[in-house]
Write a structure and sequence with these properties.
Elements (H helix, E strand, L loop, with lengths): L5 H15 L5 H18 L9 H9 L3 E9 L4 H11 L3 E10 L2 E9 L7 H14 L2 E7 H7 L3
Antiparallel strand pairs: 1-3, 1-4, 2-3
Helix pairs in contact: 1-2, 2-3, 2-6, 4-5
Length: 152
């Protein structure tokens, strides 16, 4: 199992601050670094999920909007499956775009989770599960993390 040491985390944090530039706040940097660490640990096979109160509080401070991105082979029920699970969790879809490129399907959904009775981790788990049932690759991130990672 691959573990990050303090030096690795410091380097990751410094790079995050550099990329975020003037929009770097302590909360945003912490969220981006934690998300990156989670991805690194997941890819390394450790599948560590940090549900500490500190992480939950940091994620709640980052806002109540998430981005759901999914792609895969087109098939009946994709839109209904993804939006259905969001509706069951009382999530409000603010914007949605989808595209078919021959047999390939992509979708991006901007979602307000403010009124949801469940937390981000539950939404992420359930939407990802539905996506996997539909043979989709699904990525769910807080809007701030998505924006920071895709800043030019």
């Amino acid at each position: 199992m691959n573990h990050l040491d303090e030096k690795d985390i410091r380097k990751l944090t410094e790079e995050t601050v550099k990329q975020l530039g003037s929009s770097a706040t302590p909360e945003l940097v912490e969220n981006v670094v934690k998300e990156a660490i989670d991805r690194i640990q997941y890819k390394a096979g450790s599948h560590v999920i940090d549900t500490s109160p500190l992480k939950k509080a940091a994620l709640q401070q980052s806002g109540n909007r998430i981005i759901v991105t999914a792609f895969g082979k087109n098939r009946v029920g994709i839109l209904a499956g993804l939006t259905g699970i969001l509706a069951r969790h009382k999530c409000n879809i603010l914007d949605l775009t989808q595209k078919l490129l021959q047999e390939f399907f992509t979708i991006m959904i901007l979602v307000d989770i403010n009124e949801s009775p469940v937390d981000f981790d539950t939404i992420k788990t359930d939407v990802t599960r539905v996506g996997e049932e539909l043979d989709l690759k699904v990525v769910i991130q807080h809007e701030e993390i998505f924006n920071a990672m895709h800043r030019v």
